[in-house]
Every structure is written in C-alpha cells, then in structure tokens.
Amino acid sequence: MTDTAIPLAMSEGTPEERAALPLTRVLADIGLITGRNLRRMLRNPQLIVFSTIQPLMQLILFAFVFGAVASVDGPVSYKDFVIPAVLVQSMTFAAMGSGVGIANDLQSGMVDRLRSLPIARSAFLVGRTVSDSTRLSIQALLLVLASLLIGFRFHNGVVAAIGMVIVVVMFGVALTAFSGWIGLAVANPETVQAAVFIPILPLVFTSSAFAPVSSLPGWMQPIAKLNPVTAAIDTARGLALGDDALYAISGVHLHTAALHFIIWWTLIVVVFTALAVHRYRVG
Q: Which residue, of 16, 81, 229, 237, has the greatest Cβ tally within 10 A?
C-alpha cells in the first residue's frame, strides 16, 4: 500500500464524525499510519544500517580508546560502566529521526491530507510513536548484541538485562515526543536536526554518561544530578551492573535512580505530547 492509498482507506464519514469515532476505528487508523511508516522504513534499510553504524563506532571508541586511559572507582571496568550510557545516548540521538520524519510529511503535504480526512486526530502522532518505538527497539537490540561481542557483560541477571533494554528504548520513545513537537513547529527537516541537537547535546555531556557525577566540576554536579539523561543512564547502569555496583560508582541506589527516571519520563511524555497534539490541531 502506498501513501496515495491512505485517503481511500480512511475516506468514509465526514470530518464532524472524528470526535465520535469508535475505539476500533481509532485503533484501525493508528494501525494504518503505523504500517505506512514501517513500510517506508523497510524500503529504506540504509536508515537502520547507517543510524546503527554511528553508535557502534561510539561503542568501540569509548570501550577501547577511552577505556584504555579511563577508570572508575568500583567493581566494574570502564567498558561496563560506559556502555549503558552509550546505549542511552544512541537512543537519544536516534529519537531525532521522529521530528525529521514528521517535517518530511509536512513538506510533502501528507499531514494536510490527513487533517482533511475523517480519521482519529491521534492516529498520525500515535502511529508515528509506535513505528518509531519499533525502529528504536531494533537499533537497541543490535547495539546490545554488538556490545556483548566487544566484551560487555551484564552483572545482574537476565531479567535485569531485559529491563535495561526496556529503559533505554523508553527514554528514546520519550524523546520522540520532544522531537515530534519540534518537527511540527519547525516543519523543515534540515532545521529540525539542528533544533533538536542544540538542547540534547549539553544534556548528554552534563550527565553521568562518561564520568561519575562526583568527578565532574563542582558547578556542574547539581546540573548533572537533575539531568533526565543522568536518571536514564543511572537506571540502565544499575539494571546492567547491579545496585551495589551503581552505588559504588555513583553513590545512588537503583530504586532512587528509577524513581527519578519515571518522573522525568512522565514529564517529558506528557508535556511534549500535549504540545505536539496542540501544534498538530492548529496546523
């Protein structure tokens, strides 16, 4: 099915009926948009390949180059310390693709076509979130496999390892809400990348990603402790390495990091989803 088939599949009814659409119709609309985005992704496998190569290079760089000269206080190597952070960072940057995709749909006129149809208002944004979640999950699994191949090891069991992957993907999904709002507001693919990158880059490098918060400059430590990226990284790190290792390295227990992560995740999703929905409605 091509994009031109979407109006035919959704053209029943009138615009006034959108608010009264039954749940089954809403889910069908979301499924159709999700399928359309996934088909576009499958037709462009280079997107997954090249978007995975960059974080793979970062894995190798931090594990072997920085790992040869850096160390952390605690029972784990720098490689095991930094790889959960690189996974979170990779999902953070990969989330920018959501805003770029939305901006492309705006430029192509696809969004205007959807707005004129009697479909659920939520279908476009929810469908984009579901398809991006699939993309991020694939990338995360590929990066975890690559991490294992270069010597990274989980220290906290299989269930916690699965939990770490879920946390990494969840954080990426949360940032797709932010990226999507930027895409709707800016509506230019090239500008979206720069606009998303500006706030994301300082957050990554003022976090606990590459060094414990206690080793950062004094003025930066309060920023790092409140940083949502730190919350995601500490939670992922605690699940991968265990609570004792996390506390030895960062002075934070896993349950505290997880609570901070849940709070930040909820705030990011609620605030930027609301902003994105408002922007979509007003055009």
A: 237
> Can you tell me the distance from the alpha carbon of 221 to that of 217, in angstroms, rounded to the nearest whole number?
6
The residue behind tokens 């969840």 is 170
CA distance 80 to 151: 8
- Concatenated DSSP letters of 196-243: HHHHHHHHHHTSSSSS-GGGS-TTTHHHHHH-HHHHHHHHHHHHHH-H
**Distance set, CA 73 to CA 100, 230, 272, 277 (Å):** 40, 18, 37, 45
Alpha helices in the chain (DSSP H): 6-10, 23-42, 45-60, 78-94, 96-108, 110-115, 122-149, 158-186, 189-205, 221-226, 228-241, 243-250, 254-282
Would you state the structure tokens that stand for residue 254, as one six-digit string?
A: 């896993």
Count of CB atoms situated within 10 Å of the CB of 217: 9
Residues 6+ apart with CB under 8 A from 130: 30, 34
State if pTM tops 0.70. Answer: yes
pLDDT digits (tens, 9 = 90+) for 113-148: 887 877 777 888 899 999 999 989 999 999 999 999
Q: How many CB atoms lie within 10 A of CB 129?
A: 23
CA distances from 233 to 23, 118, 250 (A): 37, 42, 11
- C-alpha 200/C-alpha 163 separation (Å) is 24
The CA distance from 7 to 118, in Å, is: 10
Please answer whether residues 119 and 28 qualify as being in contact, where contact means their C-beta atoms are separated by less than 8 angstroms. Answer: no
